[in-house]
Amino acid sequence: MRARVAAAACGVLVMSLAGCGGSDGGGGTDAGAKPGSTADGTTGRAKAGTTGLERIPDVGDRLQKRIPADSRQVVAVYGEGRDDADSTVVLYTKKGSTWERTRSWQGHNGKKGWTTDHREGDKRSPVGVFTLSDAGGVLADPGAKLPYTESASFQAPRYWAKSHWHDFDYVIAIDYNRVKGTSPNDPTRPEGQSKGGSIWLHMDHGSGTSACVSLSKSGMEYLLRTLDPDQHPVIVMGDRAELKA
After folding, report:
1. Where are the domains of the chain?
2. Residue 69: pLDDT above 50?
3. What is the pLDDT of residue 50?
4. Average pLDDT, the chain
5. How confident is the model at residue 16 (pLDDT cuts 50, 70, 90)?
């Protein structure tokens, strides 16, 4: 198990961060769940018309071509709009030569929406295709297949609103401006501080984040137990217009 003292979390330094993503507040329900979703934010498993897909739905050629040929797990984050904080998180699994919509959850992204040129502190999530290599959190490893770092250094500051205290109980690092193979809270930013960093998948509290993508605790547990380095998982994320472009 890796252990590092965190200096950064979710897009900006911990000491200056004003809440990135969130948790379920320890209550076991997703405060941001939309009508038609379950209490934990799940919107359902694969249904008719969600198997045998030739490509990831609603993703245009520009981003589709950036999905590695050997990737067999894709987490797609469909933002509602460029300036919107609501999103839908969908896991697609490749079966043979086609994709299957495995499971989905309601979630949130940057409180100001999305950007193709993310900058430190802009409160927007970066659009793009990124690998998923490392995980961690305050809580013990739930059975993650990705390398997992359990550390109290992930703990959200207690001066944050109580609803945010469990934000980082579980996190999966999105490989944007970070060094793969390190703990998610490693502050190293190869492209420089101004490009931001520490962009994670983490637990949701029902509103927008500083730049991360958040979903329910049960959703995070499912992804941690499912995403497999041998399947070369990636995340495709952005508002719906940018994804289709």
Report:
1. 8-244
2. yes
3. 86
4. 86
5. very low
Q: Give the distance from CA 143 to its chain's centroid.
A: 18
The HSE-up count of residue 104 (CA atoms within 13 Å, CB side) is 20
What is the value of pTM for the model shown? 0.84
Nearest alpha carbon to residue 87 among 156, 18, 37: 37
Q: How many other CB atoms are there within 10 angstroms of residue 158's CB atom?
A: 8
Reply yes or no on whether the pLDDT at 35 is more than 50. no
DSSP string covering the chain, please? ------SEETTEEGGG----S---TTTTS-TTPPTTS-TTSEEEE--TTSSSBSS-TT--HHHHTTS-TT--EEEEEEES-TT--EEEEEEEEEETTEEEEEEEEEEE-BTT-EESS--TT---EEPEEEEEEEEEESSPP-S-SS-EEE-GGGPPPTTS-GGGTTTTSSEEEE-SSS-TTS-TT----TT-GGG----EEEE--SS-BSS-EEE-HHHHHHHHHH--GGG--EEEEEEHHHHH-
- pLDDT value at residue 43: 55
Q: Kindly tell me if the per-residue pLDDT of 207 is higher than 80.
A: yes
What is the DSSP annotation of 103-125? EEEEEE-BTT-EESS--TT---E
Q: Whole-angstrom Cα distance, residue 203 to residue 212?
A: 10
| Best CA proximity match to 114, nearest among 239, 243, 240 | 239
Residue 211 makes CB contacts below 8 A (sequence gap 6+) with 10, 11, 12, 20, 110, 118, 122, 123, 124, 125, 126, 196, 199
